[in-house]
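A student in our group prepared the protein record below, which I am reviewing. Here is the record exactly as it was handed to me.
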Amino acid sequence: MKTFVLLLGVALPLVLGQQGQQYSQEDQGSPHTQNFGQQQPSRPPPSPQGSHPQRTQGTELVSRASNLFANELYKQLSQGSGNVLVCPLSLHVALALVQTGAGSTTKSQLTQALGFSDGIDVKKYYKSTLDAILNDQTVLKVATKMFPAKGYQLNEQFQTNARDNFYAGIENVDYNVPVEAAKTINDYVEKKTNHKITNLISPDSLTSLTRLIIINAVHFQSNWKKPFPTSFDEDFFVNSQEKVRTRMMGQTDYFMFKEDPALNAKVLQMDYDKAGFSMLIVLPNNANELSNVEAALSKMTVANLTNGLQEHKVEVIIPKFRLEQTLDLKDTLMKMKIVDMFSSKADLKGIVKGDNVYVSSVVQKTFIDVHENGTEAAAATGVIAVTYSFVQTEQFREDHPFVFYIISNENKVILFNGRLQQPETKK
């Protein structure tokens, strides 16, 4: 059976700051060091099938903040050309964990960029949000793990917060042996992403000054609720001058759909077979208006986007596509006014003790594979289409660039978003 797969890895390496005290092997015997070994977080148990955790003020606050962050992140990444694929959820989780251990302007910059108001106790609300998002762990898995340097001490309160509120595990690695350290971290990421995200950390990026790497990995996998029974080759118009031949999928069925005059675009929601997750696709009415649509989307919430959707019979034609991207997000985050974290001004004393550390880089690696489901559900799709054949059919032909989102329907959190501007060429 074929499935829809999304995978993601984020790495935040923390290294010794310029003003810090050099770390040596002798420090391993200091009373100020601690070896954690491997500590595994207690994961929330899945809710009974079909049930949803109750929405709280905390989950709504984090959902709203996460989506504000997602909009600004996508706005920055979409300035260039080509395909885009990012997981704002994973990055938000990792940076929110750092925020709980930051101080002074480092904390305020992170707080504001993450979409929170100053004075908000982020850790107080994050646990309930992760519990809600991870309601069905057979579909969406979010794994966080911290890899401190061997013999190095983390702040006890930060450890407790990371374990209890972010479900983060801890494992010591020896960054003086970079090849082995990178392998340990990469093996963890590969395992948590079903072997799709590999080599996230390069041994060349690790030095004896590396103190901590925080990893967040996301794996989303689900079948369409209404699979695509047919596929065929068709032209995709990259722009007004260029077109490519690519593989398309097609079906006619009932979907949530609307014409949005404010966007000058069509919006389609396609559900997955596990309740609670959907793909939203925003298709510009004009193939050359993608940048204008993206600008308008940056000012909208998911609730705005889904408001007004109604069930219509729709002929859907969508490309099969597979994207892989590695994003170095340091410059992007600095444009989002997260600055001190990357410099000697960083105040991360709530994370580590003794040394002045800063974040050297933020790397995200993503993978998406969208294609038709198996054939066992095709007959049901055909029956539904035939049953309502007398109803007017809307056209949703994705033969030019479009924006897509993967969302959690219960709390409207953006799990992934991106754009397809250049599909694979059919050979």
Summary: Residues 230-320+372-420 form a domain with the Alpha-1-antitrypsin; domain 1 fold (CATH 2.30.39.10).
